[in-house]
Amino acid sequence: MEISYSNKKVLIVDNRLEDLAELKMILGNMGVSDIQVASSVNMALALLRETAYDLCFVVFDLGKGSKNGLQLIQEATAERIRQFSTIFTLVVDPDRSKLLFGSLDSSPDTYISKPYSEPRVRFRLEKIMRVKQVIQPLDALLDQGRFQDALQMCPQLIQNYPALKLYVNRFRGIILLQEGLFNKAGQLFSSIVTQRDQPWARVGLGAALCHQGDYLNARQVLQHVIDESHFCVEAYTWLARTFRSLGERGEAISLLRKAVMLQPTVPELLGTLGSLAAQNKEWNVAVEAYSQAILYARQSCFQSEDYYFSLVAAQLARDSFDRDVEESAIRTLEDVIQAFPNAAIVQFKSRLMVAQVYRRAGAQDRADLAARNAFDLFCELELTEKAEWVEFFLEGMEGMAVEADAQALKQRVNRDSASLEWGRLNLQGMLAYRKKNYAKSLGFFVQADGILPANPSLTLNLVQAALEQARTPGEERFELLLRCDNALYDINYGALSLRQQKRFLSLSERCADMVRMMAEGKRKVEESV
């Protein structure tokens, strides 16, 4: 059956005008009339947010210091603007293509190489488009977010089209992980690896094992991917996580640094490296990582104010602090306000950290002035925001002229926060914890976290109660430890206050010790069988 291209919308991402013009001409000869172009990943993301394309051609190498084409697929996937029905074609040299297909859910659908030729382009497109025609109902369900319906459709597609078994099973694995069915996902990926070893299947298996807390076996699986497919960011991230979860931060940092050398423009990877380096007091590494994370996260879903505040915190923590560092820190705190212009919390935190920078520089008068400004901004916040950040606020006011006023304000905020549902639950959790009723305490913190997720103080309370509860023998013990590990992993350490950092490290070490003991016990049982 002849494939018509006349109604196809196409996006080409390339920074070389001659090559771009050549591909446009070839596609025009094939009947494509609706073609848009972008010269960078960020420009392409802006177009993908506005328009659904049938075909997207992405050049891997978009210039030194620029995000590569593979990152467009990764970021579009993370931002949930990638349509499963869109065919992503990566333009890359054949000898490098095998290194780029280790990703589970953000790999291209196919690839071509330069120099372009119409027969090769047509052959590649028609091959993948025929597959897409067959699985169009599955793509439609995935684009609609109907994952359970998509999962149920997969066996029927495999029965009707046995040649597409591997292709469809990849989607099955993605859905199983998405739905939290980690045991089933692990079984599926393991069977795929046994029948036909694929890097993406190993990544999926490694992720499933990590989600189940089987870090030692996950480590073996993921190391194999890195040895074979060097550009797979997910493999490095998951492998680093196995080391971090077992308390081996140095190994995790080393892995992430190697990954950054290979793909230096991935903001999520850089942010994770910065957080781990800060935990290990490797401040120079943290400063560089956070600086690059800020740069490459702009105009993407990875942009985060935490990167800015973490960078300044790392600069403050270093032994050397001269005028250049001071100016750099102040400039960063001005930049974060421009990046998040309507965020009152960001403005407050920025001024609070400006005060800390001036105090570190020995300019106490300027520090007091900035602290007063931060105090006024804090007063303008909503009650729930005040209650959320009151500990951070008070710690930042220590040693400032308004410290006494801050202490009095904290008492009022703590009293008033009892009127908030999450504040009341948090208070009940703390009271239960003091009475050593850890199960009850944990229940209160979980409810509070459901109302106010991702609050560092609340998360640390939850983890502390869960770790105490996990000391009690029972079937839920390991599940509690996994929840603690996941919660700690999601916290950006660099953006915490100094007291929160100290508490984080203590809880993280306790969690790692307990996870390691259980992992080693499981390994001994497996070896004895």
UniProtKB/TrEMBL annotation:
Superkingdom assignment: Bacteria
Map the TPR repeats onto residue numbers. Answer: 233-266
Q: Which Pfam families match?
A: TPR_8 (PF13181)
Q: Does the keyword Repeat apply?
A: yes
InterPro entries listed in its UniProt record? CheY-like_superfamily, Sig_transdc_resp-reg_receiver, TPR-like_helical_dom_sf, TPR_rpt, Ycf3
* UniProt xrefs under SMART domains: REC (SM00448), TPR (SM00028)
Pinpoint the Response regulatory domain residues. 9-129
Q: Which UniProt keywords apply?
A: Repeat, TPR repeat
**Classification via PROSITE patterns:** RESPONSE_REGULATORY, TPR
One annotated GO biological process? phosphorelay signal transduction system
Whether DNA-binding counts among this entry's keywords is: no
PANTHER family referenced in this protein's UniProt entry, alphabetically: TETRATRICOPEPTIDE REPEAT PROTEIN 6, UDP-N-ACETYLGLUCOSAMINE--PEPTIDE N-ACETYLGLUCOSAMINYLTRANSFERASE SPINDLY-RELATED
Name listed for the protein in its UniProt record: Response regulator
Q: What is the lineage of its organism?
A: Bacteria, Pseudomonadati, Pseudomonadota, Gammaproteobacteria, Oceanospirillales
